[in-house]
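Structure request: Band 7 domain-containing protein, Emiliania huxleyi.
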Amino acid sequence: MNLRLVNLEFSDFGRGESDQAPISARTGPDPDDKESGGQPIRLCVAFQYQIARRDVPRIYQTFGALHEASYLRFAQQAITNEAQMFTPRAFWTDRKKVEGQLLGKVNETLYRQGYATVHDLQLLRVDFNSNYEDTITNIQLQEQLKVTKTYQLEVTRVSKEVDILSAEAEAAIARINAQAQREASVTINQASAAAIQMEQGAKATWYAKLKATLGWSNDDFLRYVKIKSLNAQPGGSVVIGVDAVGG
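Returned structure:
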């Protein structure tokens, strides 16, 4: 059977009797500045440990009533050593991974040296020197500006594509309208020609029937057509087949 979970903290806010100040440590070197040997940092960390009831006697034999002070010392050393495994950037870009590895290292150390199991660990705060924090801020700002510029370029590209598609659509519509007008003109002309042919055909059929019914010769029919044509003309008097007086 295990005893209850106990929380210990390295922080500068609301410290309890068993807690300590933030841990002063150093990161691993920055890939862009390997000569620096890493950046100094202050880490606010909380962790929760638990003791198995069977281990209580040997814990008191080893540490007396001050086992938590030893746990804090063990944890601080483990965190200080492990912090050097990370680049400065990892502490703000890959915080979950940092927490996970710190938890593993603190648990391993306390289990081996203090007979306790660490169940969880939280990286509460990471403080860099002010000049490096300014550098971080500038880096993040530049990255954000780069992302913003990328979005702007993408918007411009899409806008140009839309303009091109719109122009192509308008050109296609113009071609379709022109083709429709040409086809309409052809259809109208064809219909007009067909109507004229039908009219001429109907006249020819009617004239043929008229000629046959009246028994006209070709000359008779031609005189009829002339008379019909003259009667269709507006105004004036027309005299047909009368010789001039006074020759």
